[in-house]
Design goal:
Layout (H helix, E strand, L loop, with lengths): L19 E4 L4 E4 L2 E2 H7 L2 H10 L5 H13 L5 H12 L4 H12 L13 H26 L13 H10 L5 H14 L6 H11 L4 H12 L7 H15 L3 H10 L17 H15 L4 H16 L11 H11 L7 H22 L25
Antiparallel strand pairs: 1-2, 2-3
Helix pairs in contact: 1-8, 2-16, 3-6, 4-5, 4-6, 5-6, 5-10, 6-7, 6-16, 7-8, 8-15, 8-16, 9-10, 9-16, 10-16, 11-15, 13-15
The structure holds carboxymethyl coenzyme *A.
The site of carboxymethyl coenzyme *A has 17 residues, from helix 15.
Family: Belongs to the citrate synthase family.
Pathway: Carbohydrate metabolism; tricarboxylic acid cycle
GO molecular function: citrate synthase activity
């Protein structure tokens, strides 16, 4: 048995992938060879989905029919809407509601009987999931507010349509583009915990609904997708404390608190996605309230320089600026992680498709540390 235990699988190579690559020292992220900066500035989330799933950027015609297929599949079954209403009434957390919604989508999947090895069918199912997640999430939010859901708007792209379904009002171009960029930035990121979870499930040839539901579950934790919400909560805590942000951070770090939105298993420098979101946060701040942007940049500078975190390779990750961006877009704080899931679903589907093409069951080992040769005593004698 191999004896080199790698806790947290740190540094362990388990698969080959052509979807995305991270250079953690250079702070570079690419999807299928294209820099995240070029994709964020020049494409839409739909284009990125096509790129991740098909391996190349679509032509204009390909994009048109792909986006139309996604748009046509946005509606969710009434039973799913009813479930969202009940879960909202039960005060369920949005990530758990989303997990339930995706699990339920499968009941109305027209190709449920497809051969698990039919990857074209898996891709169509993945497209349906990706198309429906925004609708279920927006409905859940509307029910929480005591409002009826808003039907999807067929003429709006996936990002703009989600903002529309949240409020019933078409978003401004700036808001729609900013949100679209945020979705692009979160779509894929190598073998992160949720993607790996989806792949493990996919490697058993379980269906894509199971894989995406598993991805959502893994993403919900505060060490992964939950950090974007934590960042905004910390910013609000600082604001409400009436302390100078630097005094608050000093006190928090003295108490040994980790600052959410800082640190990453793979990056040793600032996450390139954080840089792009910082620009967006700044732009939104210039035309609105600059408070949140100001607090984040002040904290970043202080932690990076004066507290020496930059030297230790602990720098802002994608979540550090996404919180203030979403806040300025008017998105409720506990929807930040579900939005991450909404985007990352594209990556999970892409990785499962890629892995199943040349599938091998994922089944690692653990080193047994329990007792050996215990003498068995029947229950009535214990
Ligand atoms: N604030 C202060 N110190 C930190 C932080 C932080 N946010 N993150 C890591 N460190 C320190 C940590 O105390 C440790 O120091 P030492 O070696 O002196 O004990 C060192 O950095 C290594 O930490 P680790 O926990 O062993 O590193 P990891 O690779 O296991 O953890 C992480 C990565 C993301 C879990 C961690 O940085 C963290 O908890 N960050 C805060 C939560 C967060 O922002 N998560 C979002 C991650 S990015 C989005 C995503 O991929 O989902």
């Amino acid at each position: 048995m191999a004896d080199d235990l790698k806790k947290g699988l740190e540094g362990v190579l388990v698969a080959e992938s052509g979807l995305s690559s991270i250079d953690g020292d250079a702070g570079r992220l690419i999807y299928r060879g294209y820099s995240i900066e070029d994709l964020a500035r020049g494409t839409s989330y739909e284009e990125v989905l096509y790129l991740l799933w098909h391996g190349e950027l679509p032509t204009a015609d390909e994009l048109e029919s792909f986006a139309a297929a996604l748009s046509e599949e946005r509606e969710v079954h009434d039973d799913v809407l009813d479930a969202m209403e009940r879960l909202a009434a039960a005060d369920e957390r949005p990530m758990a509601a989303l997990r339930t919604a995706v699990s339920m989508f499968s009941a109305y999947e027209p190709e449920n009987d497809a051969d698990p090895e039919d990857l074209e069918a898996t891709m169509r199912k993945g497209r349906r999931i990706t198309a429906k997640i925004p609708t279920a999430l927006a409905a859940f939010e509307r029910y929480r507010l005591g409002e009826e859901p808003v039907d999807p708007h067929p003429d709006l792209g996936l990002a703009a349509n989600f903002l529309y379904m949240l409020t019933g009002e078409e978003p401004s171009d700036v808001h729609a583009e900013t949100f679209d960029q945020a979705l692009i930035l979160h779509a894929d990121h190598g073998l992160n915990a949720s993607t790996f979870t989806s792949m493990v499930i996919g490697s058993t040839m379980a269906d894509i609904y199971s894989a995406v539901t598993g991805g959502i579950s893994a993403l919900s934790g505060p060490l992964h997708g939950g950090a974007n919400q934590d960042v905004m909560e910390v910013l609000m805590e600082i604001d409400e404390s009436n302390l100078d942000p630097l005094d608050w951070v000093e006190q928090a770090t003295d108490e040994g608190r980790r600052i959410p939105g800082f640190g990453h298993r793979v990056y040793n420098v600032k996450d390139p996605r954080a840089k792009i979101l910082q620009e967006r946060s700044k732009e939104l701040a210039e035309s609105g309230n600059s408070k949140w942007y100001d607090i984040t940049t002040t904290i970043e500078e202080y932690l990076s320089q004066e507290k020496g975190l930059a030297e230790k390779g602990i720098a802002p990750n994608v979540d550090f600026y996404s919180g203030s961006v979403y806040y300025q877009l008017g998105i409720p704080i506990d929807m930040y992680t579900p939005i991450f899931a909404m985007s990352r679903a594209g990556g999970w589907v892409g990785h499962v498709l890629e892995y199943q093409e040349d599938n091998r069951l994922i089944r690692p080992l653990s080193r047994y540390t329990g007792p050996e040769d215990q003498e068995f005593v029947p229950v009535e004698e214990r």
